[in-house]
Amino acid sequence: MRLRPGRPDIARYAPRFDVPAASGGPGVTFLGVSTLLFDDGTSALMTDGFFSRPGLLSVGLGRIAPIGERIDAALARAGATSLEAVVPVHSHYDHALDSAVVAQRTGATLVGGSSTAHIGRGGGLPPERIQQVAGGSTVTHGSWTLTFAVSDHCPPDRFPGEISEPVVPPVRAREYKCGEAWSLLVAHASGRTALVQGSAGFVPGAIDGWQADVAYLGIGQLGVRPESYVRDYWRETVTAVGAKRVVVTHWDDFFRPLDQPLRALPYAGDDLDRAMGIVDGLAAEGGVRVSFPTVWRREDPWA
């Protein structure tokens, strides 16, 4: 089968970058892939915290490690100097590579399963700054309450399995095995709720009974899955929680530094246009608004 050259043109979705800017109260800032900064001006937490974004050659052929300059620049630009928690949605490098460093820099607790805990240990975090959770766990950090449900990675999972010992970078990208993947319910003390589905995988029935106003929906690799899979994914996430706004994530080329304009992954790895075609049809059926987040902008998806 011949690979399609090029990549989708993100400019065609320009009108869809329409999440309102936050003017006060809780807000969410998209920082690439599945990194989201939730803050209310008093307390803040972050999913993933992936800012190094090493290039394709380093990931494929070399060893990777957190890049301190990129992490510091991103945290400063986002205003994320103090965090209550850093929460990787799973432990692949494009989610968890920088998580221990971000926790160190911001005074945060690293929250996740046993694989994420090993990344924290390898990154030098003390035991009291690592909080290990399991499916069904609910924890509170500042104004935010997090509930975890066991999820799955979108197939194919190129680095499956669990991390069984501390990861001390630089290492091969494959050392960042998926570990525990989560469906994450983020609830603010004000009552606002959001589902964070960092990877386009799911466990049937895992979040039945949850309610979320908004779904931050990872769509990476959806473009190469059968339409039946996309329909099942939508049903087990967006429909399950009753969200009326979806904000799509994990569509950007994470081999490109974050200080350059975001672009879609190439057709060789995914097909954003096909994924959005199916998603838009499902959204129309359910009366759901689908938006793209604007990187660096503090937004109010609940508006």
Task: Report a brief summary of the structure.
It contains 7 helices and 14 strands. It is an alpha/beta fold and 303 residues long. The chain has a 7-stranded mixed β-sheet with strand order 6-5-4-3-2-1-14, with helices on one face.
Structural write-up:
There is one protein chain. Helices cover 22% and strands 20% of the residues. The chain is α/β, with parallel strands linked by helices. Strands 6-5-4-3-2-1-14 form a 7-stranded mixed β-sheet, covered by helices on one side. The protein has a 7-stranded mixed β-sheet with strand order 7-8-9-10-11-12-13, covered by helices on one side. The longest helix is centred in the last third of the chain and has 15 residues, at 227-241. The model has no long low-confidence stretch (mean pLDDT 97).
Strand content: 15-25%
| Radius of gyration, taken over Cα atoms and rounded to an integer in Å | 18 Å
Shape: globular
Give the ordered list of helices and strands: EEEHHEHHEHEEEEEEHEHEE
pLDDT averaged over residues:
97
Number of helices: 7
Sequence of strands across the biggest β-sheet: 6-5-4-3-2-1-14
Note poorly predicted spans: none
